């Protein structure tokens, strides 16, 4: 598992005074950066090899401006060509959101999924 700290910005608040629901999926994507580096250490977009299949977010409590949010990320299920990132968002020691993202190891030139190598699987296992 690894952790990222997000500092909510004023522009991310909504009319109700809390962080807008569209922001949390972006925070979760940012928190997946270390996973992206496993597949593409330079994050060169011309060599990108992951595609997003599905995301979901469960909003557990309201999130507020002015207090940091810790995003905890780990790998859940690992399949033959895909894997699941699991996220938790914590603010002031309270779980405020959870979510998952299913990512597929993908060859964009051929437009087909690829099998995860033993080396990639081993790296993903390190963050379970």
TrEMBL record:
Gene Ontology molecular function: fatty acyl-CoA hydrolase activity
SUPFAM superfamilies on file: Thioesterase/thiol ester dehydrase-isomerase (SSF54637)
Keywords: Hydrolase
Pfam families (alphabetical): 4HBT_2
InterPro entries cross-referenced by the UniProt entry: 4-hydroxybenzoyl-CoA_TE, HotDog_dom_sf
CDD domains: 4HBT
TM helices/strands, residue ranges: none
Organism superkingdom: Bacteria
UniProt family annotation: Belongs to the 4-hydroxybenzoyl-CoA thioesterase family.
Protein name per the record: Uncharacterized protein
Source organism of the structure: Zhongshania aliphaticivorans
């Amino acid at each position: 598992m690894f952790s990222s700290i997000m500092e909510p910005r004023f522009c991310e608040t909504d009319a109700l005074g809390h962080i807008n629901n569209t922001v949390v999926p972006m925070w979760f994507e940012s928190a997946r950066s270390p996973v992206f580096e496993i597949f593409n250490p330079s994050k060169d977009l011309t060599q990108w090899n992951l595609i997003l299949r599905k995301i979901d977010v469960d909003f557990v409590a309201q999130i507020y401006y002015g207090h940091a949010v810790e995003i905890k990320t780990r790998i859940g299920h690992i399949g033959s060509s895909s894997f699941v990132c699991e996220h938790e968002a914590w603010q002031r020691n309270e779980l405020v959101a959870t979510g998952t993202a299913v990512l597929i190891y993908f060859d964009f030139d051929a437009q087909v999924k690829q099998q995860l190598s033993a080396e990639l699987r081993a790296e993903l296992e390190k963050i379970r």
